[in-house]
């Protein structure tokens, strides 16, 4: 079976086995999402406020959480060949609930697209000595990334083949330069250069920083050929992106005694290195736009019963994200996006419990998968899901101890599991009473 529609990328259907990709191609896209300027900024922030080992354990805590979420959702996405927003229809959220998920993810990712595009444009404009100005540069960079994503997942893989090796080479060169002038032992054992940062807060930054990326893992893993590919894709991505980039950035922050990423890169890799690292922002931004387009496509299909081409949707939302970036209002949008970082983990908790523990719709999923189609039936909206989602968000927002992302994820999972057990028992009891009354 071949996807006849340009750039639609199976946005509203299963990805057939013959369209699946080698593990390394999907891995490159995944690593590209983690090995970017934003990840380096996170590591530098940890290094400025923590010792090396404090930053190591904070990164480990956050990374384990991300890996567990990514692996389970990734396995479900690969098994069913479905994106996150489409898979959600049969993992607790129903038809209209999945459209809400698509909307939340789309808003979050369009927002981050604009923020990252601004960073990219500012860096590129600085490298060109202000030749075009930030607004015009932002227009050009935003439309360039949009053009890449319009052509689908294979073009994401193509940009990853350029951006990921370039970024890693700069980081390797940077750490080589650092170790040429500083001993590894002194950097590892030195005190934090800046104000102290707690391990709980740092772990929250690590987990929260990529939690949206963990939840949208099925958008990538649906192209994996089997569960083993999903395991290696998520594990290597987490080790290289979270542990690797974070800890190198920690050492660099210690060496230059600054959390300013541009300063660190300029002092270690020069302008060429800075240009390559800033260009790597393209890699995470095309994934932001790609997953956002899948979410919006699902909304239009659910609410308006219209099947639209994902490429066209990409073009429209890419222009919107670019315009928001140029307008500069996204600087005020970051706090809202961070808030969404608490609201999105409960989605993962509910989906994992429903798919792997309750298996509410596994029978219809299995039957339809054998036919290479979507299930014929789908519930509209599950009230238990909404209660669990709101509960998870409330716990993540109000409970200040621990890791907010983990708090919201676990509480939503527990509330959903218990709520569904009670709901199903009550429904069966009512059905039995009704049948006895009828008799």
From TrEMBL:
Report how it sits in the membrane.
Multi-pass membrane protein
- Which keywords does UniProt give here? Membrane, Transmembrane, Transmembrane helix
What domain of life?
A: Bacteria
Q: InterPro entries attached here?
A: CodB, Pur-cyt_permease
- What subcellular locations does the record give? Membrane
Transmembrane regions listed in the UniProt entry: 27-49, 55-75, 96-115, 127-151, 158-176, 196-218, 230-255, 261-282, 312-330, 336-358, 379-399, 405-423
The molecular function GO annotations come to: cytosine transmembrane transporter activity
A single Gene Ontology CC term: plasma membrane
In terms of Gene3D superfamilies, this protein maps to: Hydantoin permease (1.10.4160.10)
Predominantly, its location class is membrane
Q: Which family is this protein grouped under?
A: Belongs to the purine-cytosine permease (2.A.39) family.
Protein name, per record: Cytosine permease
